[in-house]
Fold this protein.
Amino acid sequence: MSAVPLGLASIGERLSLRERVAVSLRAALVSGRMLPGVTYSVPALAEQFGVSATPVREAMLDLVNEGIVAAVPNKGYRVVELSDEELDQISQLRQLLEVPTVGALAGLLTPSSIKHLRTLARRVREAAKEGDVVAYVEADRELHLALLHESSNPRLVDLVGRLRDQSRLYGLEQLAAGGVLVESADEHLALIDALESGDRGAAETVMAHHLDHVRGIWALQREAGA
């Protein structure tokens, strides 16, 4: 197993230990900290998190059920690799689901919801600015799902959450150093401004561009690693 720098989710005060471990594992997977084809043992991961093996094993079993990792008998868990075609399919589904859903929220969000979303967006930007890619992925996931939660459709929130968890973003440290993640994070603030002003067209345009931007990051990192 390759060592990866891991820590428990920074948003975890209101979550159980198992949930905090699961959030952090998903962020490490999406950010590329945990690599496809590598087998990770539960005891080694538990040591890095500073917890017992039980919450790590439970979280890993959840990821197995979601098809994100595969069990390797007597060794641990291997990260499932996704093809470019599969990443494209995920991107297309997110465009179909997120763009119209978020656009429909334009002008309908309460001041308290806008304030909460802006707080989350600033957290994403701060993580991007600091180059903390795992915190960035955690905060970005929380923001996007909080937006979708405003649609009052929990099945949609769950589905998009699963699609996000199947994504892969490699080389985020390099992108953070080049300011690309800050640029992506700033799109969230522009989106919230459009929603607050009631401009559905602008909100959908920003959201579509943002998701294209994310898919472009996948492609960029694939090419860099080729």
User: Anything to note?
Assistant: The longest strand covers residues 69-72. The CA atoms of residues 19 and 212 lie 29 Å apart. The domain at 84-225 is CATH 1.20.120.530 (Four Helix Bundle (Hemerythrin (Met), subunit A)).
